[in-house]
User: Fold LysR substrate-binding domain-containing protein from Azohydromonas lata.
Amino acid sequence: MDFKQLRALVTVAETGNVTRASTVLNIVQPAVSRQLKLLEEELGVTLFERSRHGMDLTEAGRTLVEYARRVLNELDRARAEIAPARGSIGGIVTVGLLPSACDLLSSALVTAVAARYPGIRVRISMGYAGYLQRWLEAGEIDTALLYDPKPTPAIQTRQLLEEGLWAVGLPDSGLKRDVPVTLRELATKPLILPSAPHGIRALVDHAAALQSLQLQVVAETNALSVQRSLVLGGHGLTILPSIAVAEDIARGLLNAAPLTQPTLLRKIVLALPTNRQTTLPVRCVVELLVETMREAVDRKHWPAARWLAE
Assistant:
């Protein structure tokens, strides 16, 4: 098994057939087919089901592709770090961002990295905290923002900021930024909430249980975009950090009010793996990520956030 074979495997999986893969790899089609055949012979399994419509991965093929992508990513990163542009810091750094903060941070981070470290290429992976933590532990990303996870020997964390959750609804919902709303008041309204075990859902359910409140959950979703769309469609109110809908509030599409009695807070932490070295390019990008977040809080671009890091 060598890198050429793994790259052929991943490229065929991504393009769907050998012909397109040979174009992407800039080698003849029989060479691609031979690389796949050598892999299958070495492993003693079938990696693709061949059909008139293309190449479909088998279960074994899907497993190998997952590992092959990690290997190839690591190789690309090593090349970039070993041979950067003369006199510069170079490499590929993959950053995991939460959906609620991705729009605010991604462009600012890429801009900052390009200005200060042009030899570094940033990859942004967006996902909920549970997924980001698994990707971080598996080596698929280099650093991530998480919601104050339970201690684990696989990652080290640093608290960055704390933000309150807000009730969010249409402009005619009566919600006002300067008038807090209680969870008991929200319990009488139709609610659209994240699906369990999402961190916000756990906070809301726990607070409701302490007050013996029965929430009227009319819809659940594991996608922030769907949660927002359902509110915009008039299906109910929701509970989110205000940063997730700051642009909609500014445009007058949605209104929001701080949640009180109880005040629900979430802490965002910076996470790094403990099972591998934090390289210089990663440290540089982490520094700029923290600077970007601090600047967003200082300029009031991150509503309801309080900076915790020194």
Q: What stands out?
A: The CA atoms of residues 156 and 286 lie 13 Å apart. The mean pLDDT is 89. DSSP finds eleven helices and 13 strands in the chain. The first strand starts at residue 48 and ends at 51.
